[in-house]
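DM between two lab members

TW: hey, do you still have the Regulator of microtubule dynamics protein 1 entry open?
JB: yeah, one sec
JB: this one, 314 aa:
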Amino acid sequence: MHGRGMAGATFMRFAARTVLSAPACKAVKIRGYHRQYLTIFRSNTSTINGGRTAFLLTLPVLSYLGVEAYRTVQSATVVHALEKAEEAVEQADYLYSCGETEKLYQLLLQYKDSDDAEFLWRLARASRDLSLLAHIAADEKKRLTFEAFEYAKKALEKNEACFAAHKWYAVCLSDIGDYEGVKVKIGNSYIIKEHLQRAIELNPKDATSIHILGYWCFAFAELAWYQRKVAAMIFASPPTATYEEALAFFLKAEEVDPNFYSKNLLMLGKSYMSLKDQGNAVLWLRKARDYPPHTEEDKEVHKEALDLLKKLSA
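TW: and the structure you got?
JB:
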């Protein structure tokens, strides 16, 4: 985890796990994580029909065969465009699965003016992932963080029914809070929660959205008394949550997609620790410790789980 504040990149880094696709998508497993590979793109019928009508009005005479030939050519052009879009999405998801962050960013940057939310939320994710790379300078990190938010915002504007757009809007909004002060960060927390809830409503099978909402609850349940006091001074009713609520979301995420994410296993252990349930805490911390490490974050989880197990056995 990158420790940049309770509701910042530390709060959301686990969201970089990609999403389980909606029913119209085909999902496959790569290195133990769900990767979205194919999205069904639908043509804009009004645009196509409008274009055909305008074309026909310019011709005084066009035989039936001529019309059909034109329709066939136009249809082939549309299909080709859709196939190219699908190929671009597949290529983007492949690069994401391989951890090729910079190549992915350059690929998706070609679609920054797209009206398709499927490109835009992926670009938001890629911009954010790029901002988290160790070699990225502070000023570039900030630029990419705000850029990611703009792409996520645009994705949401283009398709309010896209669960991934809601998810990445919440993640990116959390990130920019690190640059806008405590008051803005706390205020944004309400909005973040709303979009996570909407993402889950749109796709109840996305374990990572459920996990993020669990982490949101855990973060606010964990606030020290003096932090609560500061929050109460800024807001009459600051966000609140309990460890029980956090635990319920972590368990639900595990139910939806068992063993999908090392961090979820760790948070289950930490939630049970906070609730003084040592037996279940040990059970889940051992699972987190034994999770096959694929990423640097998995290695960090392994270390933290080991440390907590030692603490419990002391």
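TW: got it. The longest helix spans residues 64-97. DSSP finds 14 helices and two strands in the chain.
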